[in-house]
């Protein structure tokens, strides 16, 4: 697989832009577009011409519903195991309020995809293996969800975000690769997962 080209300065500026976007989103709910806008700019800065590669039409689109099913099966298993361990994990604060965010959610999730896949591609461009790059992406993706899923316990919240959101990132990254490195494949799956999860 061809590695996307980047520079150290491009990755640094891209990372700073993503941090600004994520920080604004966490700080002000009205800044829902921050991660999306900063993500687009970060991709253009970090990957330049190569940034357009991810906009291709996804291949193997049949894998999208399979990845959604896989996420819910794994999530259910992790939920049962965590319950048996006595952990009561916090639900997403917008659960049950999907109508309030339905029109902005696709943009927020594209911002998350730009961040998650940006870490994956950035790490790959620096010579890390696909597995190590995916693991790094999953850990960062999980950690960025701590504010949303804080349950009062650092250990419980950390396990929650790494085992649910981190595992989701592994699935979305795998789907991104298998659909021909198309961000649309992982984004569609991410939207479907969140639509289902937040409507429950």
TrEMBL record:
Recorded hits in InterPro entries, A to Z, give: Rce1/LyrA-like_dom
Domain CAAX prenyl protease 2/Lysostaphin resistance protein A-like per the UniProt entry, residue ranges: 98-196
What is one Pfam family matched by this protein?
Rce1-like
Report the protein name in the record: CAAX prenyl protease 2/Lysostaphin resistance protein A-like domain-containing protein
